[in-house]
Amino acid sequence: VVQMSEADPAKWNLALNNMRNLQADLGAANIDIELVAYGPGIGMLKADSIVGNRVDEAMAAGVKVVACENTMRAQKLAQADMLGKISYVPAGVVEIMQRQQQGWAYIRP
């Protein structure tokens, strides 16, 4: 599970590169990757995001990308404002905690 809570495009590109490398090294069929965006990072999942094309490529490669609905409410964002094909969770930090409890590795670029 990859935490993205920053709006820095360089950090997003680093995370997207890390995920691509994980899939290349371990085999995409052998690993589940979930990117969880919340706080300031949620803006990078908006439809007009400057990393939107890369996020779409990651999803096409099998990465699950989820947005925190708590953050979306706080920032007055609707699903219509966001990239297509992303998923949603009620609370991003809870999602990360649950994944860790399930044995997932935690990555924060």
What's the total count of β strands?
4
Helix content: 25-40%
Strand content: 5-15%
Q: What is the residue-mean pLDDT, rounded to a whole number?
A: 97
Poorly predicted runs of 5 or more residues? none
Helix count, DSSP H or I runs of 4 or more residues? 4
Widest β-sheet, arrangement of strands: 1-2-3-4
Structural class: alpha/beta
Describe this structure in words.
Strands 1-2-3-4 form a 4-stranded parallel beta sheet, sandwiched between helices. It is globular and about 40 Å long. It has 4 helices and 4 strands. The chain is an alpha/beta fold. The termini are close together. Strand 3, helix 3 and strand 4 form a beta-alpha-beta unit.
Keywords, separated by commas or semicolons:
109 residues; alpha/beta; 4-stranded parallel beta sheet; 4 strands; 14% strand; globular
List the helices and strands and how they pair.
Elements: E1 2-4, H1 9-26, E2 34-37, H2 52-60, E3 64-68, H3 69-74, E4 87-89, H4 92-101
Parallel strand pairs: 1-2, 2-3, 3-4
Offer a quick outline of the entry.
By secondary structure, the protein is of the alpha/beta class. The chain has helices spanning 9-26, 52-60, 69-74, 92-101, and strands at 2-4, 34-37, 64-68, 87-89. It has four helices and four strands, in the order βαβαβαβα.
